[in-house]
Amino acid sequence: MNAPLTHPPGLALEALAFDNHYARLPAAFHTRLPPSPLPSPHPVVVSEDAAALIGLDVAQTMRPDFVDAFAGNALLRGSDPLAAVYGGHQFGSWSGRLGDGRAHLLGGVRTPSGTLELQLKGAGPTPYSRFADGRAVLRSSIREFLCSEAMAALGIPTTRALCVIGSSLPVQRETMETAAVVTRIAPTFVRFGSFEYFADKDDVASLRTLADHVIDDFLPHLRDAPKPFEALLADVARRTGELIAHWQAIGFMHGVMNTDNMSILGLTLDYGPFGFMEAFDAGHICNHSDTYGRYAFRAQPRIGLWNLYALADALGPLIGHPDVTRALVDDHYAPAFDAHFAQRMRARLGLATVQPGDADFIGTTLGMLQLQRIDYTLFFRALSGLPGAALRDARAVIDAPLRDLFADREACDAWLLGWRARLDREGSRDEARKPAMCAVNPRYVLRNWMAEAAIRRAREGDFGEVRAVFGCLRRPFDDQPDCARYAAPPPDWAAGMSVSCSS
Ligand code: AMP
Ligand code: MG
Asked: Which one of 42, 221, 422, 470 has the largest count of C-beta atoms within 10 Å of its C-beta?
């Protein structure tokens, strides 16, 4: 399954070295329970890149007991499955007890670059399921798999996805669908909401235990700081700022930035009704349950701050007065966001130096894209191929790859004049600039229509398209001749798609 011929030999399934840090936390943190079996499990797609992260030999992913293990039908030796408790602010309202309603943490696996946790999503009900079924549908599992792996290939911090296992189990959503399990990998799945849960209960001892766990296991350098808990909050603020800057620069919309979906390590976490920006519209709302646009594209940086304040308030008992905790967020979030956003946008535009007026130029560019509703990914990729200088008479031909994206060609020409003047000011050389731009401006992103087309085929038992999309998105910056269809603008049936929260 997507198996490269030259994969370094790795571990056998039974050789995974489990070391279950989270399971060793006190009982207040989790409920131990095995996954529920899944009928007629079958592999849908496997990421050999993710398998390599835990040192698993790709040949292992063909074994029937691989499928059993990651369907939740057989326990891997050394695993100690549990569901974790957490709370969270959902659409701004506090929910005191959420938790893994459909996720089983199998445990941590030792790797040369630290322990990585394996988690099954959709493997049956837990004490935190409330009235829901603990399952995930094939549709949302494929979406989570493809997007996790696509984000990783784009260089954006994210939880990873090892595989999707499908099944015949019917699951009721808006219509009847079938269940699947996606296996996720991350150093930790601790969320802002994990801290909020204990803060809400005034359980300062558990709050401290959780903060110590995060520092000692994942951010040990913070232990040397004069005030480690303050350093932790500052670090989360910085990472979150960098993450959201990366989202904005690439045009990623999470869709449900509730505090329970915010990773304490600044990873993109919990893929639901996400989307990648197509025709640029800063106000775009990718989640069709988000009536008021709380999580619209342009709101994401502001919501990141809101969520960090919620975390800051939760950490108050360990740090001090809210003025202190919120100031820590203020000191680290916006500066990290601003610096990274500017740096990434400059790179997308091919600007190698920092010059006065750059922020205005970036703003003007986004304003122009908004007015013209240009496909965000195609714009930057087409721009990457244009020369830094063009004689007036030759422009119609030379600039055609970009001009053709515009209904208003004059708007394109006017913007290009400004771009070329800016390149000229730094003595930009095409030979260096073009490859640098192609390395940051992807040819391919996971457009909703691509996921949708793959899902339609998968529902009929044909996983070829899921694997083809995955194969393409593993190398988003490389021109791949057999992926031309994925670099085209969305087909009419998919323009302006938004995705429901149901999963
Ligand atoms: P989400 O919107 O996916 O981030 O989920 C919010 C909360 O609802 C989390 O506590 C989930 O575990 C829980 N949840 C979502 N879907 C289900 C389901 N089908 N069964 C049980 N719990 C669920
Ligand atoms: Mg969630």
From this structure: 470
102 CA distance to ligand 1 middle (Å): 6
Mutual angle of helices 430-438 and 376-384, in 10-degree steps: 150
The model's confidence at residue 265, banded by pLDDT at 50, 70 and 90, is very high
Ligand 1 atom closest to the Cα of residue 135 is 19
pLDDT for 445-502, tens place per residue?
A: 999 999 999 999 999 999 999 999 999 999 999 999 999 999 987 788 887 666 777 8
Handedness of CA 55, 59, 62, 66 (dihedral sign): negative
With contact defined as beta carbons under 8 Å apart, do 251 and 377 qualify? Answer: yes
Ligand nearest to the CA of 256: 1
Phi, psi dihedrals of residue 36, rounded to the nearest 5°: -90, 140
State the first-to-last Cα distance of the chain, in angstroms, to the nearest integer. Answer: 25
Q: Whose CA is nearest to atom 6 of ligand 1?
A: 98
Q: Which residues in 439-454 are b (16+ Cβ under 10 Å) and which e?
A: ebbbbbbbbbbbbbbb
Give per-residue pLDDT as tens, 163-220: 999 999 999 999 999 999 999 999 999 999 999 999 999 999 999 999 999 999 999 9
Q: What's the 435 CA to ligand 1 centre distance in angstroms?
A: 42
Dig out the tokens for 53 from the structure: 């992260």
Give ligand 1 pocket residues (Cβ under 6 A). Answer: 98-102, 128-129, 132-135, 256, 261, 270, 272
**How far, in Å, is the centroid of ligand 2 from the Cα of 274?**
13
Q: What is the pLDDT of residue 496?
A: 63
In whole angstroms, give the CA distance from residue 30 to residue 81: 10
Ligand nearest to the CA of 273: 1
pTM listed for this prediction: 0.96
